[in-house]
TrEMBL record:
The HTH tetR-type domain, residue ranges: 18-78
DNA-binding interval(s): 41-60
InterPro entries with a match to the protein in the record: Homeodomain-like_sf, HTH-type_TetR-like_transc_reg, HTH_TetR, Tet_transcr_reg_TetR-rel_C_sf, TetR_C_16
Keywords recorded for this protein, A-Z: DNA-binding
One family name in Pfam for this protein: TetR_N
PROSITE patterns hit by this protein: HTH_TETR_2
Entry protein name: AcrR family transcriptional regulator
Amino acid sequence: MAVDDTTARRRGRRPGGQDTRTALIEAARAVFGESGFDGATVRTIATRAGVDAAMVNHWFGSKEGLFAQAILKLPFDPHELLAELQDGPDEEFGRRIVRTFLTRWDGAGGDVFQALVRSVAGHEQAAAVLRGFFQNFFTKVIGGLGSDRVELRTTLCASQLVGMGLVRYVAKFEPMASSEIEPLVTAIAPTVQRYLTGNID
């Protein structure tokens, strides 16, 4: 009896390309929905997607990273974003962070940030993963800069970016809601830079 080609492809491993990433995101949404964050395992998600569990770390770094992409729907890959931000002088890190944040969220559309806020407000696991994302992300950033008081600096940076997103995309306060990106970078980046490397006493 001939084997249905579609069935055979589903049972086999997918190639390690973009279709693997998409399959993992779709499987993660289903498994997280069924089991919650704590109950969902990397192996279960990978099995649902028809790929090796190592692909989760390859594409997303961790279960938390996959949750960020599948549930929080962040419009960027945290690992790629960190590498992009590290490309430049340390004294301009604040400018790169603010410009990249605004560019990515503007490109994704304000409704995506609104959806993120709703997820965090109504879903403790989403809030926990978002906190973990900012903690891990800025710990790497600040640690690489050699700054002290990493935990406080991380919280300060996160408060600036989340607050900026709320004002621009959710509350839509003018003129910030409709401002071009570069004037906002000029106004906000020095504060972020101080949180990263300056005196916070």
